[in-house]
Design a protein that fits this description.
The chain is an alpha/beta fold. 42% of the residues lie in helices and 16% in strands. It has a seven-stranded parallel beta sheet, with helices on both faces. A three-stranded mixed beta sheet has the order 7-9-11. A two-stranded parallel ribbon has the order 8-12. Helix 5 (161-180) links the parallel strand 5 (131-137) and strand 6. The longest helix is centred in the first third of the chain and has 22 residues, at 99-120. It starts with 5 loop residues before the first strand and ends with a helix. The protein binds nicotinamide-adenine-dinucleotide and thymidine-5'-diphospho-beta-D-xylose.
Length: 358
């Protein structure tokens, strides 16, 4: 028999969180789900259209750093499971404005850990099946040369304010396991792509710009390598770790799919050319590619060794990269209203600051 859970998902209105909320509603409809999200620029209720509030689903707008609000929620609801996605997630923004990353990723995670510790050490919640799953990133491990992979035993070596804040939160989570016995788990995943990703990240930004005939900014020489994973595969992995992972453990999640950024960008261009034909200029969309100033401290290569999750939990990615990019391009083509609503005034301002008038 499946255990029925009361799950607090944080950041469920963001890219991965919304995909995970959708997966849980479809696969574990009997679970009660509370989605807590601050609705920052990256959080969007439109990511959850079709998910109605009711006995099994509730949305709460709050900041994970607001200790009073979080403790009140734990007092009001029999939460036995936390899946913690909420974060400031964009590396470039962490370079221009790190403060929010410290507040949300470090202090916010601390606030959640404290609330869970206090609540779960109280009477009535000690059924031995509570879980605090912290969603983290491969970026905590730093940057690889041409060889090697990140394993769960790889020493942390974060190099951007974003990755340093995620590393700090991972350390806090582990400290709560060792010190207080909080049943924590951590997943460290590679780059995700797919529906509902905010167009500040490489793939949706390239799709959006290419559709509007704008230049396609590629940082540095375009040869930095990321390991790309379709978001649906990531969400399936998160559910596996939540239900069957061993508390105290970390699980690396990756697509075994290393690509140079320039390969990713040209693939998106070629798919759009195939889907829509050439633009009015008669030039392929590859002609829009523009090499721009590199990101400060730009990590060269990430690559995940996902042996542990494959061997322990039997998880493997199901969506191939070309297939996943085609599905993603098609989703953005079919959801131009969603895109139009998120590229509002503040996005335009962000874009001008980052990329100038291009
Ligand atoms: P996102 O930026 O799309 O969404 C973040 C969500 O968190 C938004 O809904 C936002 O409103 C919410 N949020 C931000 N600050 C908050 C706060 N103080 N209180 C409550 N809610 C807050 O991020 P994403 O890409 O979906 O990433 C989700 C998680 O997965 C993050 O923890 C990120 O570090 C991790 N991760 C992301 C990737 C990736 O490729 N996107 C890869 C590995 C790990
Ligand atoms: O305009 C761009 N041009 C460009 O060349 C942008 C936005 C990015 N890039 C490069 C930088 C990276 O090498 O593309 C690569 C991917 O960039 P992002 O989409 O910003 O992702 P990245 O910095 O790799 O981090 C992502 O994966 C790990 C997520 O944003 C993180 O939240 C996650 O932890």
């Amino acid at each position: 028999m499946q255990k029925t859970r009361t799950v607090l998902v944080t950041g469920g209105c963001g890219f991965i969180g919304a995909n995970f909320v959708r997966l849980l509603r479809a696969k574990r409809p009997e679970w009660r789900l509370i989605n807590l999200d601050k609705l920052t620029y990256a959080g969007n209720l439109n990511n959850l259209t079709g998910i109605a509030e009711g006995p099994e689903y509730r949305f709460v707008r709050a900041d994970i750093g607001d200790a009073a609000a979080i403790e009140e929620l734990f007092a009001a609801e029999p939460i036995d499971t936390v899946v913690h996605f909420a974060a400031e997630s964009h590396v470039d923004r962490s370079i221009t404005g790190p403060a929010a990353f410290i507040a949300t990723n470090i202090n916010g995670t601390f606030t959640l850990l404290e609330a869970a510790r206090k609540s779960w050490s109280g009477a009535g919640r000690q059924d031995g099946d509570s879980r605090f799953l912290h969603i983290s990133t491969d970026e905590v491990y730093g940057s690889l040369g041409a060889e090697g992979y990140f394993r769960e035993t790889t020493a942390y070596d974060p190099r951007s304010p974003y990755s340093a804040s995620k590393a700090a939160s991972d350390h806090l989570v582990n400290a709560y396991f060792h010190t207080y016995g909080l049943p924590t788990l951590i997943t460290n995943c590679s780059n995700n792509y797919g529906p509902y990703q905010f167009p500040e990240k490489l793939i949706p930004l390239i799709i959006h710009n290419a559709l509007h005939g704008r230049s396609l900014p590629v940082y540095g020489d375009g040869r930095n390598i990321r390991d790309w994973l379709y978001v649906g595969d990531h969400c399936e992995a998160v559910l596996e770790v939540l239900e069957r992972g061993v508390p105290g453990r970390s699980y690396n999640i990756g697509g075994n799919n290393e690509k140079m950024n320039i390969e990713v960008v040209t693939l998106v261009c070629d798919i759009l050319d195939r889907r829509l034909g050439l633009p009015a200029t008669g030039m392929t969309r590859r002609s829009l590619i523009t090499f721009v100033k590199d990101r400060l401290g730009h990590d060269r290569r990430y690559a995940i060794d996902a042996t542990r999750i494959r061997e322990e939990l039997g998880w493997q990615p199901q969506v191939g990269f070309e297939q996943g990019i085609e599905m993603t391009v098609d989703w953005y083509l079919a959801n131009q209203e969603w895109v139009a609503a998120v590229v509002d005034g503040s996005y335009q301002e962000y874009y001008r600051t980052m990329y100038g008038g291009n």
